[in-house]
Design brief:
Layout lengths: L1 E4 L8 E4 L10 E9 L2 H7 L15 E9 L11 E3 L10 H4 L23 E4 L4
Antiparallel strand pairs: 1-2, 3-4, 3-6, 4-5
Length: about 130
Amino acid sequence: MRAVVVEAFGAAPVLREVPDPSCPTDGAVVRVGACGVCRSDWHAWAGHDKTMAPPYVPGHEWAGEVVAVGADVRRWAVGARVTAPFVQACGECPQCLEGEHQVCVDQRQPGFTDDGAFAELVVAHRAT
């Protein structure tokens, strides 16, 4: 699939062929219909987020259509039109159990901890 890849902080991102993502058992693969550009994407690209390391695919404000679901997913099906929050929380840590998903200690973030949606396909983790 095609994806925009940041190969070095501050350098112009490039369009590259990259492998299609695998569908996790608790997630879904989504064909990206649209993806916004956020100031946090710029901070990552500029090297301000010390957890980031190039190369990576940015983009976390997306919407699209489900093209595959994992074996543990019950709420979503192929063809569903979806979006997902920036923080894909675990749902099990003390913060999640208190409803504070944005500070989950085991969070996943497209475009940061995982490849993002500046691509033809993106993974929505924890989509059960």
